[in-house]
Design goal:
This protein has 340 residues and is an alpha/beta fold. It folds into 2 domains: 183 residues, 3-Layer(aba) Sandwich (Rossmann fold); 144 residues, N-(1-d-carboxylethyl)-l-norvaline Dehydrogenase, domain 2, CATH 1.10.1040. The protein contains 17 helices and 8 strands. Strand 4, helix 5 and strand 5 form a beta-alpha-beta unit. Helix 9 packs antiparallel against helix 10, helix 9 runs parallel beside helix 13 and helix 10 packs antiparallel against helix 12. The longest helix has 23 residues. It is globular and about 60 Å long. GO terms for molecular function: glycerol-3-phosphate dehydrogenase (NAD+) activity; glycerol-3-phosphate dehydrogenase (NADP+) activity; NAD binding. This is Glycerol-3-phosphate dehydrogenase [NAD(P)+]. InterPro entries: 6-PGluconate_DH-like_C_sf, 6PGD_dom2, G3P_DH_NAD-dep, G3P_DH_NAD-dep_C, G3P_DH_NAD-dep_N, NAD(P)-bd_dom_sf.
Length: 340
Amino acid sequence: MEKIAVMGAGSWGTTFAKVLGDAALAAGEPRDIVLWARRAEAAEEINREHRNSRYLQQIPLPDAVRATDSAVEALRDAAVVVLAVPAQSLREQLRAWKDAVAPGALVVSLMKGLERGTDERMSEVIAQEWGTPASQILVLSGPNLAMEIAREEPTASVVACADEAMAQRVAELCTAPYFRPYMSSDVVGVEIGGIVKNVIALAVGICEGRDMGDNTKASVITRGLAETTRLALALGGEAHTLAGLAGLGDLVATCASPLSRNHTAGKLLGQGLTLDEVVERMTQTAEGVKSADAVQELAARHGVEMPITAAVVAVLAGKLAVEDLGPLLLNRSLKSEDGY
């Protein structure tokens, strides 16, 4: 029986474990899906009651999903390792887990952030710390609001890998009746789409918190997509990726949904809360808060203009009041819309 380790029992990690279990049931292929939980009580609840009430309320988990608070146990002999931990703690976790990973395991990143200090994408951190070749590193992204997927509302996403055969293999593992993965070889584009949308969602949330209208929010979303595309292209990504699920699809969902942590964090900032107050109030990480400065640094290094990102970074750093944000959101010299 093929073993899949899902490292991280937060909302998205738990939901993806459910997707894997439902996909196995639909395919008629028994699989051992082990969910690593940092808290022993979370693992006990999952094994005893088949639910993770802290993140997914009363939504039941498939019988194929079991949990442990031992990373070594979860990783032992796993053919596929799914990483669903906060982006800023990834490198430390990888170092702690390195000796437990089975040789040749496929590594799937569900994370959407840049590492602060290095400005590196999660696939780059994985390659550095575990020495995993590009053909065995995959990223999954798209409109991934965990609670909607856990409720089995139809959702499509993208699995990207340099080796398209590996992308297809992982796509088959997570094809459930309500979850449809598409395949891509554009790892850079898929990751950048998932990273920058968090920052743009903060901006849209701030606009909503300031009671700005739909014209403003639509303008920020559209020009935010242009910023994202410029950065992706500068790093070797492909424009069509950003027009798809991992770009536009994820951006729209994250900017518009009250389930989005980044949208919620931005809205609270717009309503006048300090960053410390926002972080204290939220129970889960808003990745855009952590990654925004890294996105701006990466853009500057490649000569990419990102005025919306720059404005959000200034707000987060306390250098710009939220009431002064509006005029800076579209602060770019007059240009044709062609060419982003």
